[in-house]
UniProtKB/TrEMBL annotation:
This is YbaK/aminoacyl-tRNA synthetase-associated domain-containing protein. It comes from the Bacteria. SUPFAM superfamilies: YbaK/ProRS associated domain. Gene3D superfamilies: YbaK/aminoacyl-tRNA synthetase-associated domain. Residues 23-143 form the YbaK/aminoacyl-tRNA synthetase-associated domain. Pfam families: tRNA_edit.
Amino acid sequence: MSMSATLQDCLRSKGSQYEIVHHPYSHSSVETAAAAHIPGDRLAKTVLFEDEHGYVAAVLPSTYAVRLSELWAKTGRHLLLAKETDLRELFKDCDAGALPPVCTAYGMQTYLDESLAQQPDVYFEAGDHEELIHMGTDQFLDLMDRAERARFARRMQGMPM
């Protein structure tokens, strides 16, 4: 699988300037950053949560973890990690575990952690496990303009920047 069609449509509709970065197949965002030789703080990962009202996406650096209490306070919802089987159904044009951050295009409320806005540039999954999209932060924030910006994540112990 290559770039998700939904992501391609978003990039095209925004007139985004980006480059595609190829890397060896990886299983996790930490592995991806290492395989692509990029700083983990600049690699945006997408984590999907759910409750009885539906799904919520959280987009944060790969070196960070979601603080559930902060996300619950921000959303007013008691969200839990979504099931892997649900991800396959919701993101049909993506490989499992390679979700691009444009979840609003999939009809989901999306929260973007402020720490990504502080980076000089951002990388993120293109929908498979071998390609990343790389763009300047201004382009990324424009692409993510329908996401709500908030602080809900913290750096994981022992993670390289």
